[in-house]
Design goal:
about 450 residues; mainly alpha; Tetracycline Repressor, domain 2; about 75% helix; EC 2.5.1.-; transit peptide; Protohaem_IX_farnesylTrfase_mt; mitochondrion
Length: about 450
């Protein structure tokens, strides 16, 4: 059995010396593990400090190199080849898009130098073409000031005055003049024609001037001249003034004061009532219908000089026609009108929009029957106009029932040919001055 160190020291040295040795041995055996652990802790702390120092040194070197690499250096311009020149951009595009024919495997490996030169691609030409294309795209993206040219001015002014709408206004005015029970005076007709057209151009130009910030939000109107900046607002207002003043003057002093007053009132109603009301209330549709109903009344008053039942009937037909026409149009443009901030029936009151369109389709039937009763046409007119009136009423009912884009488009396109055909039938069945109708008083 092995002897412990305490018994060994007590055997070798007895007495006081052996006790001292035993005490020292016992203290060493107790405190040596603690000192060893403390030494290890100190070494670990020194190692962690050394690692941290190395980490900081690596970070410093990395950041220094990165800052040196991030310095801005001017990009060298690609040198153009002095041997190859391109005559046009089309040739460069053709060379880029050109497809090389595949080499068949049956061909021998021995080729002439000229054949190799023909088959090898031309990398320099491809590089030149890509550089030219890059320059072209950069030039297209750059902002360019739009300059007004004299050649473009007639087309811009035609779009500013809404030339198609102006043509519709002038045609309804001409129909009212022709349907009036008075001898046809060509000089008076031409003055009425020109004056009404100028008044319509003025009203439409002022309307576009007021609606520039709202038209820019709509896909339907974002390409108008004032929105695109093709002309200045001052030029637009000047053009409107130059149309309004002579137009009203021609209608007042060239035709009669009643027609001139109606023209001036229509300009005011369209620009100062209908235009701001479009962003406030759905009543703008009814106000706009009154604006569209006045031109045939102006034609009647220009021929007769008075405002009687026939003029009111023509105005009523145009008034009712506009509801299926515009309501069907606005139904497909609901997103556009809501984006532009306009308060339309199709956006805020869709059910009312469809009901109103159907009601006025049926109202056209009643007013066509009233035309011979007021001695405007013969009784043949309501009979021959019945098919087209029934058809537009049927499409109005389909629009009321289905409430989709397909039915609204059918109703809108029907309204485009319904009105001119209806006015043409009225002219065909017009009651002549010498004819006596059932509605006239018996002598």
């Amino acid at each position: 059995m092995a002897a412990s160190p305490h018994t060994l020291s007590s055997r070798l040295l007895t007495g006081w010396g052996g006790g001292c040795i035993w005490y020292l041995e016992r203290r060493v055996t107790r405190e040596s593990p603690r000192r060893f652990l403390h030494l290890l802790r100190n070494v670990n702390q020194q190692w962690v400090t050394f690692q941290h120092f190395n980490f900081l040194r690596h970070m410093y070197v990395t950041q220094l190199n990165r800052s040196l690499k991030q310095q801005i250096k001017p990009k060298p311009e690609p040198a153009e080849s002095p041997f190859l020149e391109k005559t046009s951009l089309d040739e460069a595009k053709a060379e880029i898009c050109e497809m090389r024919p595949l080499v068949p495997p049956s061909l021998s490996l021995s080729r002439k130098p000229s054949e190799k030169a023909l088959i090898e691609p031309e990398p320099t030409s491809v590089i030149e073409g890509s550089i030219d294309l890059g320059k072209e795209t950069k030039e297209e993206k750059q902002w360019k000031e739009m300059k007004l040219r004299v050649d473009d001015l007639p087309g811009i002014l035609a779009r500013l005055s809404k030339i198609k709408l102006t043509a519709l206004v002038v045609s309804t005015t001409s129909a009212g003049f022709a349907l009036a029970p008075a001898p046809f005076d060509w000089s008076c007709f031409l003055l009425t024609f020109v004056g009404t057209g100028l008044a319509s151009c003025a009203a439409n130009s002022i309307n576009q001037f007021f609606e520039v910030p709202f038209d820019s939000n709509m896909n339907r109107t974002k390409n108008r001249p004032l929105v695109r900046g093709q002309i200045s607002p001052l030029l637009a207002v000047s053009f409107a003034t130059c149309c309004a003043v002579p137009g009203v003057a021609l209608l007042t002093w060239g035709v009669n004061p009643l027609t001139g007053a109606l023209g001036l009132f229509n300009i005011f109603l369209y620009t100062c009532c209908y235009t701001p009301l479009k962003r406030v209330s759905i009543a703008n549709t009814w106000v706009g219908a009154v604006v569209g109903a006045i031109p045939p009344v102006m034609g009647w008053t220009a021929a007769t000089g008075s405002l009687d039942a026939g003029a009111c009937l023509l105005g009523g037909i145009l008034y009712s026609w506009q509801f299926p026409h515009f309501n069907a149009l606005s139904w497909g443009l609901r997103e556009d009108y809501s984006r532009g901030g306009y308060c339309m029936m199709s956006v805020t009151h869709p059910a009312l929009c469809r009901r109103v369109a159907l009601r006025h389709c049926l109202a056209l039937l009643a007013m066509c029957v009233a035309a011979p009763a007021l001695d405007v046409t013969t009784w043949t007119f309501p009979v021959i106009a019945l098919p087209i009136n029934l058809y537009i009423s049927y499409l109005g009912f389909r629009f009321y029932r289905d409430a989709d884009r397909k039915s609204s488009r059918k109703l809108f396109f029907c309204s485009l040919w319904h009105l001119p055909l209806l006015l043409l039938l009225m002219l065909t069945c017009k009651r002549r001055a010498g004819e006596e109708g059932t509605g006239a008083p018996q002598s």
